[in-house]
Amino acid sequence: MICLQRIAGDARRSDGGGLPDLVLSVRDRHLDVMTWLSARGRTYTVTSSVKVHNLFGRLYMLPVAIAHRAIVAADLRRLKKMTSTG
Questions:
Q1: Rounded to the nearest 5°, which phi and psi values hold at 16?
Q2: Which of the 8 DSSP states describes residue 9?
Q3: I need a surface site. Which of 14, 21, 34, 38 has the fewest CB within 10 A?
Q4: What is the per-residue pLDDT across 41-51, written as a single tens digit (0 to 9) for each?
Q5: What confidence tier does 86 reach under pLDDT thresholds 50, 70, 90?
Q6: pTM of the entire structure?
């Protein structure tokens, strides 16, 4: 099952609101994945959590875990380039 959830912005945020946070969750019998995306002014945060349930989930995560940091870093650099002014 794939679930996409919008989380309303915090009224106390110093940037006056802006975009809501997004949470993507995917669950199956091998693993559960949750990714939280938030934007606060010009600061973007990506948080991911994975819970493996069995051997297949652990084997699947071996190459994913190695590449995950590089993929997210490249995505954030691209986002920075797309949103930069000037």
A1: 75, 20
A2: P
A3: 14
A4: 778 788 888 99
A5: low
A6: 0.60
User: Which residues make beta-bridge pairs with 5?
Assistant: 23
Taking the C-alpha atoms of residue 76 and residue 65, their distance in angstroms, rounded to an integer, is 17
What number is the average pLDDT over the span 25-44?
87
Nearest to 33 by CA among 6, 66, 67, 60: 60
| Cα 25 to Cα 43: distance, rounded to the nearest angstrom | 22
Between CA 51 and CA 43, with CA 23 as vertex, the angle to 5 degrees is: 110
Please give the backbone phi and psi of residue 30, each rounded to the nearest 5 degrees, phi first: -95, -35
The answer to whether the beta carbons of residues 45 and 76 sit under 8 Å apart is: no
